[in-house]
Structure to design on (210 residues):
């Protein structure tokens, strides 16, 4: 049976850490300063705390401060600026085309951002469905709800799904749900809940996990 691939977006299909993430982080800090009347230091520390505790700053702001999720996402993901910063591996399109089976995109980012990034990279056509945080009821990874939404809506058996991610926390949930896990990272060690460890997206073509 062909596998079903579930991909993360940022730092998985493109290099978000180089410029995109720093810009989003600055936007989030500025938003929190305005909306919560915090100093820059306070806002930055709280943003990091919520990221570590919940896996997404958004989750912490909604849960603890009643922030409107959609307003936050629109204000902190300015497309014109972010799309100009994109950087990705030239082989990503070829790699996705070579992988057998269906493919889904599950991101913690907002759908307007996710869709435009895929379009800019030129890989939208590879995915049977694309999920931003809105499509999982604003319950981002590593929450099991995000993964289950994709599994249920497309009647997927997790035993035949492969999750490709840069986040170990997100991969832990995927593994607990019965998926195979692929970690994209330059880190030398491979934790027990990771089935395969690669450093570049192109290495996916050599894997045999199912």
């Amino acid at each position: 049976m062909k596998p079903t691939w579930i991909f993360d977006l940022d730092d998985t299909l493109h290099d978000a850490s180089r410029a995109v993430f720093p810009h989003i982080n600055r936007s989030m800090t500025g938003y929190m300063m305005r909306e919560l009347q915090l100093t820059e230091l306070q806002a930055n520390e709280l943003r990091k705390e919520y990221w570590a505790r919940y896996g997404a700053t958004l989750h912490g702001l909604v849960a603890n401060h009643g922030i409107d999720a959609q307003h936050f996402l629109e204000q902190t993901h300015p497309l014109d600026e972010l799309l100009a910063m994109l950087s990705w591996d030239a082989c990503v399109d070829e790699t996705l085309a070579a992988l057998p089976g269906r493919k889904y995109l599950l991101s913690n980012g907002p759908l307007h951002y996710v869709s435009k990034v895929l379009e800019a990279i030129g890989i939208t056509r590879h995915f049977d469905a694309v999920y931003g945080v809105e499509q999982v009821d604003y319950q981002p990874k590593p929450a099991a709800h995000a993964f289950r939404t994709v599994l249920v809506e497309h009647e997927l058996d997790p035993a035949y799904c492969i999750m490709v991610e840069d986040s170990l926390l997100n991969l832990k949930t995927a593994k607990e749900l019965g998926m195979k896990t692929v970690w994209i990272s330059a880190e030398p060690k491979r934790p027990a809940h990771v089935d395969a460890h690669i450093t570049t997206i192109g290495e996916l073509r050599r894997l045999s996990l199912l």
